[in-house]
């Protein structure tokens, strides 16, 4: 017994006629009749009572019809999937550091969700090394990292934008450059953060003591600590752009030939789903405007 046999059976019931069902399904009447015979042979009992020239659905046929309807509805859904594979849907797991998630991805996410509401986005915030591991083991579909560009084993990297970075100082800081200021702590991002290592090197190069340390994974917390004159830090300029503009904070731009870059990463063997392809496309378009 096959789906086509059940489709014929359903059509006969709904049309009330073998002849009409054959016309709608574009079968010869003999084919329709043979389809019903296959069903009856499978169950070992008739589904229609043949009363003279009339064919009437019997009790067993009614039971079969009720159970066939959801089965064929599911079959239609499966067939329809062929036409939907190009439409973004399903789940998309994206990793990004907090600063990128808040200040670069927010408008991209807003546009993406307005275009593709059927996609369930799962956003994961962690350090760049941790997210590389999640890409390699398949826990993430893609990541938007903020790091220096490097050769990536098993991963494909597409650089998008060199993110301006700066040393950030409280408005009340006693100098316009980094100095040893006992009253100010060094505000570090979490261990493993790409630009924490750069900040540590900057402090070392300037012989700044880092004995008074506060560490937190949140750039928003660091920004509040800067506004409260608690310490100094090293952040993407976009995180404090508003506060620099209104004079509540001040900064020292970071100049380098090896910049921190917003970049898309995914596993080299990862299938690029329509949902993932569209997110990457919108992100690339947005990155053009960041400069």
TrEMBL record:
InterPro entries: LysR_HTH_N, LysR_subst-bd, WH-like_DNA-bd_sf, WH_DNA-bd_sf
The UniProt record lists the keyword Iron-sulfur: no
Keyword entries, A-Z: DNA-binding, Transcription, Transcription regulation
PROSITE patterns: HTH_LYSR
The keyword DNA-binding appears for this protein: yes
Pfam families: HTH_1, LysR_substrate
PANTHER family: HTH-TYPE TRANSCRIPTIONAL REGULATOR, LYSR-FAMILY TRANSCRIPTIONAL REGULATOR
Family designation: Belongs to the LysR transcriptional regulatory family.
Protein name per the record: Transcriptional regulator, LysR family
Source taxonomy: Bacteria, Pseudomonadati, Thermodesulfobacteriota, Desulfovibrionia, Desulfovibrionales
């Amino acid at each position: 017994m096959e789906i086509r046999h059940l489709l014929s059976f359903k059509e006969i019931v709904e049309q009330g006629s073998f002849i009409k069902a054959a016309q709608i399904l574009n079968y010869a009447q003999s084919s329709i009749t043979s389809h019903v015979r296959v069903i009856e042979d499978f169950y070992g009992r008739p589904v229609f009572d043949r009363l003279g020239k009339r064919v009437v659905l019997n009790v067993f046929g009614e039971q079969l019809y009720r159970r066939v309807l959801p089965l064929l509805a599911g079959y239609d859904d499966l067939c329809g999937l062929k036409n939907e594979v190009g439409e973004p849907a399903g789940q998309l797991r994206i990793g990004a550091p907090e600063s990128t998630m808040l200040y670069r991805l927010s408008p991209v996410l807003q546009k993406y969700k307005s275009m593709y509401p059927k996609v369930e986005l799962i956003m994961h915030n962690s350090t760049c090394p941790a997210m590389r591991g999640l890409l390699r083991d398949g826990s993430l579909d893609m990541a938007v990292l903020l790091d220096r560009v490097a050769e990536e084993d098993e991963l494909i990297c597409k650089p998008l934008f060199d993110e301006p970075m700066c040393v950030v100082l409280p408005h009340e800081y006693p100098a316009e450059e980094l100095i040893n200021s006992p009253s100010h702590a060094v505000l570090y991002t979490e261990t493993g953060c790409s630009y924490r290592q750069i900040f540590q090197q900057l402090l070392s190069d300037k012989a700044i003591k880092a004995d008074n340390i506060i560490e937190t994974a949140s750039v928003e917390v660091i920004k509040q600590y800067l506004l409260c004159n608690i310490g100094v830090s090293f952040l993407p300029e976009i995180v404090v752009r508003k506060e620099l503009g209104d004079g509540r904070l001040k900064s020292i731009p970071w100049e380098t030939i090896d910049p921190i870059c917003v970049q898309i990463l995914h596993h080299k063997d990862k299938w690029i789903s329509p949902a993932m392809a569209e997110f990457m496309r919108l992100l690339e378009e947005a990155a053009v405007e960041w400069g």
